[in-house]
From TrEMBL:
This is Trehalose 6-phosphate phosphatase. It is an enzyme of class 3 (hydrolase). InterPro entries: HAD-like_sf, HAD-SF_hydro_IIB, HAD_sf, OTSB-like, Trehalose_PPase. The lineage of its organism: Bacteria, Pseudomonadati, Thermodesulfobacteriota, Syntrophia, Syntrophales. It comes from Syntrophus gentianae. Its cofactor is Mg(2+). One of its GO terms (biological process) is trehalose biosynthetic process. Removes the phosphate from trehalose 6-phosphate to produce free trehalose.
Amino acid sequence: MIYLFSETGQAALRSFVDRSTLFAFDLDGTLAPIVADPARIEIPKETKEKLIDLNRMATVAIISGRSRTDARNHLGFTPRFLIGNHGAEGLPGREKQEEEFRGQCIKWQKQLERFLPLASESGILIENKGMTLSVHYRRTSNQEAAVMNILEVIGQLKPFPKRIPGKCVENLLPAEAPRKGEALLQIMRHTGCPKALFVGDDATDEDVFRLDHDSILGIRVGCEGSSLAAYCLKDQKEMSDLLGRMVSLKNLYPGGIPFEPYGPP
């Protein structure tokens, strides 16, 4: 990965951003710092202000692992596209399929609750997000043992889910559910935006970074470790600076696609 605020990275950013660019972001770990209690995440004030400015002048999409309702509560504004459940919720034309996903998640939750130890005793938390499930183990006393136990139980689930590991969490998706990469491509087709810039921070975002498209610029939060993203930020604190530069570049290209939020309120 190339550091985005290097001379090479800044040249790439300047050449990529124009009136037709779609701006897409993950939420946890990207717009908001990771915290021990997922319910307590908060987008820093300066970051939120710049994000709202960008939202006024460009097509912005938030593609989060949270449900749309949960993500909206933490955003404090309405982007044109708010996609939840790692891409499974809120995409145009997927409404009927979403009901099937809800039913699968209820079945999985019952199976997990039957075979995993109680959260009060183990620190393992099962979170039903409607169309996906997340099994958190950040608060366990032995994370290595916890994840082995979780994976053993996941292997017995019926129907078998897609599994996307995250930071101290195992995310479970219905086999037919779109992931973040497919979600981003569908938004591009729906809006007519020929290119997209995406910022994410963990394994769930690699689904976008692995797309072999010159029309997608992938930026990872965190330069340590391996990733298929072309560029990186050192940490989440640099998001505010990045958003400020995006706003400045967009000011050079007035116009673009008019703002109209997609999906239910």
